[in-house]
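[job 4471] stage=fold_predict status=RUNNING
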Amino acid sequence: MEKRIYPRAIETVVSPEPQPPRDFTDPHAAVQALEALYERNTAFLRDAFASLAEPGSNERRYRAYYPEISINITTYSQTDSRQAYGHVSTPGRFATTITRPDLFESYLVEQIRLLMRNHGVPVTVGESHTPIPLHFAFVEGTHVDGSVAERIKRPIRDLFDVPNLEGTDDRIANGTFETLPGDPQPLAPFTAQRIDYSLHRLSHYTATSPKHFQNFVLFTNYQFYIDEFCAFARETVAAGNSGYTAFVEPGNLVTMAGETAPRDGLPQIRLPQMPAYHLVKPDHGGITMVNIGVGPSNAKTITDHIAVLRPHAWLMLGHCAGLRNTQALGDYVLAHAYVREDHVLDDDLPVWVPIPALAEIQVALQEAVAEVTGLSGYDLKRIMRTGTVATIDNRNWELRDQRGPVQRLSQSRAIALDMESATIAANGFRFRVPYGTLLCVSDKPLHGELKLPGMASDFYKRQVAQHLTIGIRAVEKLAAMSTEKLHSRKLRSFSESAFQ
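[job 4471] inference complete, writing structure tokens
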């Protein structure tokens, strides 16, 4: 029997020179320090991986830590609580790990500026006690030499820290996080490792870099809307005078303002699971549109990951089943409440939690419908109904015993049924991202009114273009608001992190 030889345990841990914490009173300087520390530590891990072919390199463990930003509050003095974020309510030490400060630069500067303004104390930048997983040190644009892996004589977990699921949960956002004695309280809703996990997933699911995502996101469940959005985006960017600076498609195909074809990127032979398209404005002020496909699982997956980018709003534009005899194909449904039978968020957000309509979103959507259709007041009621939208996880619910689902839908006063809207709204509520839903009635299964093949083609050509125009108009209205008004206190719980 062959004797198996086990490698010796690694006793030597190699890390970059520890950097002592530093206090900052300038938010830009604080973010620059975060960027320098992050780049130094991730470069250390990348260089260590590249050196594994050298003799003796497999006998050391390599470790570098995420940057950390913290603040110490020593008083219960009241701050201006009209704003939903940018302050803490109790004394103590508050901290969060930071990743990709280059990507989040504007966000971090604003959050730190508000903390300094509201509390009059400096912030501290230093190294955390959370190791950076090797996988997350290879950010966009860095090269991984595949031949190195062939020369590694030990499992990678012996040599480097790897992603740890214990650090990628949503306990802070869910309001279930418990601070241990002596530990700082959370300063932000997501940890660095949780953010890194989502950034890598976004690239995988959408085939576009996280850096291209904009602060206003449209979700749809039909490719027709994407086709219309692409046509609008290409025409808008080609004109070169709209304020939009680029259009980005899957494969990171970038068409600059004033141009008609991409100048870089890699065309996709096959589209990813949930392709994303970005109509870019400076400081991420444009529109991202994602085809999430059908079903609540996809809706949860993509919003779980986009949430870490801290967008200003996301809206659902899609088709639904009209549940009232008074509705007609092509009518609009503005959701002001949701019935959740999607089940994918039950463990994170119990179904007894109400998902309220947000006035700022509702007004923007209703005004956009009125402006695009030319109808107002009482006449607007002919084509748009405000009411409860039910979301279900069974696409073929019509094939079950009708007494159960139909009775529940009737008791809830639902006027429309789909498979994504309540999930997107619930995750918006959970992650403090303003949300809204405007659907278009595409069939009426309870009344036997379904689209015939010819009717379907005409319906899509006529209605999708108008529906998308309404969504874009609503987003432009939201973008014109101050972020303080848009990120209202409605989505904040008893004990909140200071970062939005």
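[job 4471] summary: The longest helix spans residues 453-479.
[job 4471] exit 0
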